[in-house]
Design brief:
The chain is mostly beta strands. It has no helices and 4 strands. The structure holds zinc ion.
Length: about 60
């Protein structure tokens, strides 16, 4: 198992059911839940990144 590019871990929350989990964020912005095939049972990509491992300031809207 090799690691391509730089994947970073981030906390993500499903915007539909509110489930929170840790995902790998790929270089192309895709999310991949860690330790389980899907973060929750909702269909579609409804995950929203809460917090990255990079020290970004808060995303003020
Ligand atoms: Zn969900």
């Amino acid at each position: 198992m090799s690691v391509d590019g730089e994947n970073e871990r981030a906390a993500a929350r499903c915007t539909r059911c509110g489930e929170i989990g840790i995902v790998l964020v790929g270089p192309d912005g895709t999310f991949e839940p860690i330790g389980q095939p899907e973060l929750c049972s909702c269909d579609g990509r409804t995950l929203r990144i809460l917090e990255r491992t990079l020290d970004d300031p808060d995303d003020g809207s």
